[in-house]
Amino acid sequence: xxxxxxxxxxxxxxxxxxxxxxxxxxxxxxxxxxxxxxxxxxxxxxxxxxxxxxxxxxxxxxxxxxxxxxxxxxxxxxxxxxxxxxxxxxxxxxxxxxxxxxxxxxxxxxxxxxxxxxxxxxxxxxxxxxxxxxxxxxxxxxxxxxxxxxxxxxxxxxxxxxxxxxxxxxxxxxxxxxxxxxxxxxxxxxxxxxxxxxxxxxxxxxxxxxxxxxxxxxxxxxxxxxxxxxxxxxxxxxxxxxxxxxxxxxxxxxxxxxxxxxxxxxxxxxxxxxxxxxxxxxxxxxxxxxxxxxxxxxxxxxxxxxxxxxxxxxxxxxxxxx
Length: 322
Prior knowledge:
Strand order of the largest sheet: 10-11-12-13-16-17
C-alpha cells in the first residue's frame, strides 16, 4: 500500500529566507522561474540557489512502511520544487539504541539493499539528490551511515558516524562501529554537501572539517528528544555556521517510541547564524532555499577561515586532565 505524504504544517514552504513560522508559497505560479531553477538554479540576485527538503518523520517497526513513507515524501518534495532531500537518523527502523545490548541485526542493511535501490530509483525518476540514513552492514561491521545519492540515481559515497556515544537511551557503542573514513564532502549536481551524523555535531572539528573541504551545505541527520537542551543545541549550530561560513541543515525524527519522544524541530541555518526555517514537533517536510552567494559574503565579512593559522590548529589528541 502506498504511503501518503506527511501532513503539511505552518512552517513548511519556505522558499527563500524567512522567519521561523512564516508562510510562503512553493513555486507559486512561476513556470519560467521553475525552468531557470532546473537549468541553472539562478535566483533573482543572479546567484545560485539550492532548494532543500528535510523529511521530519516518525518510524514504525516495519521497514517497508518506513520506506513507503520515505518515497512518498520524496515525491512530495519533488512536486514542490526541491532539489535535495534529507532524512533523519536511522530512518528505516525504530530507534533501537535506546536499549543496551540488544540484537538489532534485523534492521541492518547492506548498501545494495532493496530499500536503497528503491531510493536510488526514486532519485533518478524525480531528479533529486537524496541523503538517507541507515544501519549499514558492511564487511562484517555495522555503522550509522548516510549514503549520498546523486540526482541520476548513482551513489556518490557514504558517510559514517565518527564519534559513538554511550549513555542512557543512547547505547550506541553496543551497535555502531566508528567511521573508517572520517568527515566527507560530496560534489553533487546541486552543490557541495558535507554530512555530519547526529552526535558528531557536538565536536567543532566536524563542521570545520567539512567547511575546509569545500562544503556549502552540511546536513545533519539526528535523533534529538524532548528533555534535551534544545535551545543550546540550536545555538550550537548557529554559532558553528557563523564560524565556518556554511549552511547547516539538521533533520530530526519525531514522535514517541517506547521510552523516548523525539522532538522534531528540524532546522536550517545560514552562514550568518540566522534561522532560515524551523519545524515544530509534528511530522512534516520542511522546505528551505539555500542562497549559496551568502557563503562568500559571510566569509568576506568575517574572514575566520582565511585568517586561520593551520599550523596551530591541528586536530590531534589532547590531554583532558581526566
